[in-house]
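User: Round two. Same drill as before: sequence, then structure, for each protein.

Assistant: Same drill it is. First protein:
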Amino acid sequence: MKSLLRSDPVQRLLLHLLRGYLWLVLHTNRWTLDGAEHLAPHAEGAPAVFGFWHEYLPCMHALAWRASRMPGFRPTQLHALVSRHRDGRFIGAVLKSFHIEPVHGSSTRGGAAGFREMLRLLNDGAIICISPDGPRGPRRQAAPGLAQLAALANVPIVPCAARTSGGIGLHTWDRMAFPLPFGRGVIVCGPAIHVPRAAWREAMPAITAGLDAVADRADRMRA
């Protein structure tokens, strides 16, 4: 069964189905944006690192969609860090359907190359999306790469979260809830966190607190 699921024809079918399903989730939920003032400068083109806990990954394409509808929006290429593993490549193909370009690399495979590429993109004015507790956890514990990247590029971290009112809880390490259509959705953006280049370690507690705050708010608002 595992070999069948990993075969190219089945992978193409699954990719097509997941793209269609996420489009349905995006366009049949009534979305609320909380913290528009924190998103606005970056919708207008200012580079940043958008951070979110891994459990919110299935809804984060809604953030790019909502940003594109804000006043003053200026098209800016969004990039998301995904694993070099087969699952990461699959996620990257899904993201491309929503105009989010994958950057392949992780803490275990291709990390240095992925980091250099993200730094180059930020210096060119792009926006990078990272889940700092992915791809394997521990849940809601940020790896240092998020802070290091923001510090070296001299760009802020914008904490984000997104959920739908309906969801199917998955038995995964991150307790992800797979979103359902035909309900309500909420996107939360918190205040930007500025990371001093020489003191990125000291910023780690503030980054974790910021990500937890938007996560808790999204969980409350979607109920």
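Second protein:
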Amino acid sequence: MEVTSAGQKDKIWHILEQEPHRVFAAQGLAATLNPTAAKDPNQQQQLVNEILADLSRLVEEGKVREVAEGGFKARIFTNETRYIEHAFIGGMGNTDFRFSSPIFRLNIGVIGMYFIKSPSEENWMVLVRDTTGGTCFSLRTRLREGTYQIGNQVQEVEDKGFISIVGRYIEKKHVTITIRGDVIFVEDLKTSKGTRVDLLTEEGLTRYQEAAREFLKTVEPSNCWDPVSRGRYVLDQFLRHRQNLEVTFFGAAVDSILLQTIPVGSNPDPRAKTL
């Protein structure tokens, strides 16, 4: 039985690995693995239960993520070190993505939105970065638990907790993000270009924050927000120690430390505007 179970688990992993952006349900996998089981309800339910058990094992192994209730997909990482996980939703067979990470990014067109959870306050800081004008600036706002809409038009809705984040170059108006404690829910209703979600893994968060603390020890306080200083530090770490850090996530890790000491409503970064 163990050999058969292991063989089935390997087959499930192979199916998910072949289409890593697609979300699979146990029922769909059952029809693929054993089409004849659909003729017998009892046999089909037994197979579904076995597949759910195999999927749970794959989740424990860190290969698969349950991104929605009963929906599973292969985890995708940006590089071999597996510090940053990403997913593409909308137009790829899945519209929902559920995860937990204190630092993550939404890529919507040319806009990069960095969400940083404040460890000292019950809210999230959102930094919206736009480089299309040749210069980098950020719009800063704070979000508490609730549902938010991201788009280029302000929608008139009755729910006061449904707030729009408007961006000139955001080409969609119906991506929603829901914050419930440590769990984040992102929904993209099958837009043509989709939405990319990037999040730091637990190991990645530790790595980036350690590098951020070292950076803050070496830079003058007046330059701690300077993207050039941050970029030079990342380049130096790569040349000297072969430590490959993504500049934008490194900046978000630096921000996560700096923002711990910033009172609500203040704006210490001269390049940042408050929404």
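The two ends are 59 Å apart (CA to CA).

User: Perfect.
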